[in-house]
Specification:
7-stranded mixed sheet; Rossmann fold; 8 helices; 20% strand; alpha/beta; 2 domains
Length: 218
């Protein structure tokens, strides 16, 4: 029996957990192979440059993956204008079992024309950009359109939730629960400020200043 082929694109200024979170879940399943791919083989650096992730193949090396997990990061702002990437996304979606995204990876799916008229999610500060791509932004953590074979996840850590759901869809619930146990994913954060609905005005002010700083570094 052939394995399920999952590809996760990596690119300059990627958000590490967007890619590594789903990877940590999916690679635990014996029937799933996960490969990081990119414009060319080799290392790319994350948003702040501290971490390198290696692409083991190019987009063209994987024309028919079973599952696409497109991560986010400030680097997606260039990818929404990268016709090589967008055409590849359009082509692979024709045959994928599931086409998915984490964080601003949904902006790339949107730019490829896959989200028009569909509800979708992304990082909370990027709803206007997602809407500009023809999607209907929602604050749900994971948004499924199984008839369209599309799943989008919100910011960063939500990719872990989405990956667990993918395991359930690709294998079964028992496998998903086993993966959750293997990574000991049992969130008990010391604070309750993980969404805009829970944030205080002070939290908002600090976060906006961080975002402004990040934009200056783009």
């Amino acid at each position: 029996m052939s394995k399920v082929q999952v590809v996760i694109p990596v690119f300059a200024k990627i958000t590490a957990l967007d890619a590594v979170g789903p990877y940590e879940v999916l690679q635990r399943i014996p029937s799933i192979d996960v490969t990081f791919i990119g414009h060319q083989r080799g290392e790319v650096r994350t948003e702040n440059g501290f971490l390198g992730i290696t692409a083991d193949g190019t987009f063209e090396d994987f024309p028919h993956p079973d599952v696409l997990v497109f991560p986010g990061g400030v680097g997606t702002r260039k990818l929404v204008h990268d016709e090589r990437v967008l055409e590849w996304v359009r082509n692979v979606h024709r045959t994928t079992t599931f086409t998915t995204s984490v964080c601003t990876g949904s902006l790339v799916l949107g730019a490829a024309g896959l989200l028009k008229g569909l509800t979708a999610t992304t990082y909370w500060s990027c709803y206007p950009e997602l809407e500009a791509q023809g999607a209907i932004p929602t604050a749900q953590r994971v948004v499924e359109h199984l008839d369209n074979r599309i799943i989008t996840a919100a910011g960063v850590s939500s990719g872990i939730d989405m990956a667990l759901r993918l395991v359930e869809l690709l294998v079964d619930r028992t496998a998903a629960e086993a993966a959750q146990l293997m990574i000991e994913y049992d969130p008990q954060p010391p604070f309750d400020c993980g969404s805009m609905a829970k944030a205080t005005a002070e939290n908002d002010d600090i976060m906006l200043r961080v975002i402004e700083y990040a934009q200056l570094r783009e």
